[in-house]
Each structure stands twice: as structure tokens, then as C-alpha cells.
């Protein structure tokens, strides 16, 4: 009996499917499948979903290249929800974040002038603030204004961006030599920020850097360097 034949779809012929990262166990996204999407996922090994808004079957990553390769499929006790363990190429979220669940609600959330605007510290966890800043950088790039520092750097081109990174790296080194921890933190933040602008220039989300660090994790520095030179 096929997997789809064992599942209980709702009145619209759908059921929710949760995807998690095979390497980390992190929840990546939630979408919906119909029976055809389930069957295609099983037969191709690539995750397919059904878009309720577009009323269309689609393969994850068919346009972006951010495909999901199936490693395991589980279904719950009621057979009306799937849990997919996948190898994720690139980012699962259309915003460029590795996971769609990058926002963290906190009771410290604040509203400004009645708008649903919240403090970055309240929404983003420590590990996600780089993703949040990168997202804002890309927004500034795509919707430039005269008052945007980020937009001005993009307008001046790659050499200007690289020059700022060199400048901030030097200032970080000077702060380290000076021995003031607060100055080190301040200058390192500037260096991180301008490095994110460089990543944005090449449309490289921070997840690409995270993935490279995960690849190196557990390797000695000497071993990693030797492997790089082979």
C-alpha cells in the first residue's frame, strides 16, 4: 500500500507537512501536500508540496535551487500530518533564512504608534540577528533611499564595500590591541555588519557561512587547511 493511501487528508484533500533539517534537527518550514505531492515526494526523493493559494503542485527549490532531498518520512498517530527529515540545499525560507521559524516572540515585544513594529532583540534570537540584519540590508539594496547608508555603499560599488571591510578589520585589530573589551565588541559589530553587506552584494545569505562552519566543525585547523589545498 502506498504512503498516500495510508494518510487521512482533509476535506480539501490536504494535510500539513513539517520539514526538519537532517543534520541539525531544526524545524525548517510547514507547508501542505495533497496525495499527488506525497506520491511524487516518495518516487522522486525530492520534496513536493501543494500551494493552496496558487492551486498548484510544486517542487521545493524548482526555481531557487533550494531543493529538499528526503531522508525520512514519518506520519503521526492520526495519519493526518507528515514529518519530513530532509537535506536542505541553501535556505528553506523565501526570505533567505535557513528556517522559516527565525522569529522569536518575547513578552518584551513593543508596539510603536500602534503599528506592529517590534524590537529586533525581542523578535530575533542571538543566533538569528545576523540573518535579521542581512534581511534589512537586502531590503535597503532593493528599495534604496537617499538616507540609507547601506544603499549608498551599494551605489558606490564593490571597491567601496571592500574598503570599508578593510577599514573595520583594522579598527577591530586596533581595539583588540587597546585591551578595552567594549571597544572590541563595538568594532567587531561594525566588521560583522560590513561583511554582511559584502554577502548581500553577492546574494549570499549568512546560512552559506553557517554551512561552511558546520562543515569545518570537528576538524583541526591544520587538517582543514591541508584539505583545502588538495
Automatic annotation (TrEMBL):
Residues 1-129 are annotated as: Phosphoribosyl-AMP cyclohydrolase. Its main location: cytoplasm. It catalyses: 1-(5-phospho-beta-D-ribosyl)-ATP + H2O = 1-(5-phospho-beta-D-ribosyl)-5'-AMP + diphosphate + H(+); 1-(5-phospho-beta-D-ribosyl)-5'-AMP + H2O = 1-(5-phospho-beta-D-ribosyl)-5-[(5-phospho-beta-D-ribosylamino)methylideneamino]imidazole-4-carboxamide. Its EC number is 3.5.4.19, 3.6.1.31. GO terms for molecular function: ATP binding; phosphoribosyl-AMP cyclohydrolase activity; phosphoribosyl-ATP diphosphatase activity. GO terms for cellular component: cytoplasm. GO terms for biological process: L-histidine biosynthetic process. InterPro entries: His_synth_HisIE, HisE, PRA-CH, PRib-ATP_PPHydrolase-like, PRib_AMP_CycHydrolase_dom, PRib_AMP_CycHydrolase_sf. Residues 29-102 form the Phosphoribosyl-AMP cyclohydrolase domain. Gene3D superfamilies: MazG-like, Phosphoribosyl-AMP cyclohydrolase. Residues 130-230 are annotated as: Phosphoribosyl-ATP pyrophosphohydrolase. It is found in: Cytoplasm. SUPFAM superfamilies: all-alpha NTP pyrophosphatases, HisI-like. Pathway: Amino-acid biosynthesis; L-histidine biosynthesis; L-histidine from 5-phospho-alpha-D-ribose 1-diphosphate: step 2/9; Amino-acid biosynthesis; L-histidine biosynthesis; L-histidine from 5-phospho-alpha-D-ribose 1-diphosphate: step 3/9. It is an enzyme of class 3 (hydrolase). Keywords: Amino-acid biosynthesis, ATP-binding, Cytoplasm, Histidine biosynthesis, Hydrolase, Multifunctional enzyme, Nucleotide-binding. It holds the Pfam family PRA-CH. In the N-terminal section; belongs to the PRA-CH family. This is Histidine biosynthesis bifunctional protein HisIE. The gene is hisI.
Amino acid at each position: 500500500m502506498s504512503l498516500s493511501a495510508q494518510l487521512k487528508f482533509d476535506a480539501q484533500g490536504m494535510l500539513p507537512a513539517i520539514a526538519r533539517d537532517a543534520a541539525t534537527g531544526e524545524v525548517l518550514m510547514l507547508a501542505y501536500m495533497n496525495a499527488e505531492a506525497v506520491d511524487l515526494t516518495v518516487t522522486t526523493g525530492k520534496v513536493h508540496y501543494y500551494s493552496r493559494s496558487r492551486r498548484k503542485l510544486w517542487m521545493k527549490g524548482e526555481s531557487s535551487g533550494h531543493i529538499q532531498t528526503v531522508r525520512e518520512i514519518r506520519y503521526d498517530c492520526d495519519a493526518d500530518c507528515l514529518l519530513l527529515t530532509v537535506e536542505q540545499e541553501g535556505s528553506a525560507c523565501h526570505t533567505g533564512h535557513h528556517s522559516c521559524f527565525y522569529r522569536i516572540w518575547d513578552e518584551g515585544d513593543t508596539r510603536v504608534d500602534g503599528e506592529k513594529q517590534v524590537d529586533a532583540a525581542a523578535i530575533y534570537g542571538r543566533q538569528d540577528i545576523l540573518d535579521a540584519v542581512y534581511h534589512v540590508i537586502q531590503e535597503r539594496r532593493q528599495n534604496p533611499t537617499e538616507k540609507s547608508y547601506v544603499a549608498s555603499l551599494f551605489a558606490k560599488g564593490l571597491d567601496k564595500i571592500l574598503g570599508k571591510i578593510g577599514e573595520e578589520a583594522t579598527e577591530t585589530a586596533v581595539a583588540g590591541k587597546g585591551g578595552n573589551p567594549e571597544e572590541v565588541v563595538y568594532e567587531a559589530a561594525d566588521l560583522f555588519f560590513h561583511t554582511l553587506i559584502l554577502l548581500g552584494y553577492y546574494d549570499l545569505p549568512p546560512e552559506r557561512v553557517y554551512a561552511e562552519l558546520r562543515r569545518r566543525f570537528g576538524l583541526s585547523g591544520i587538517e582543514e587547511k591541508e584539505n583545502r589545498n588538495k
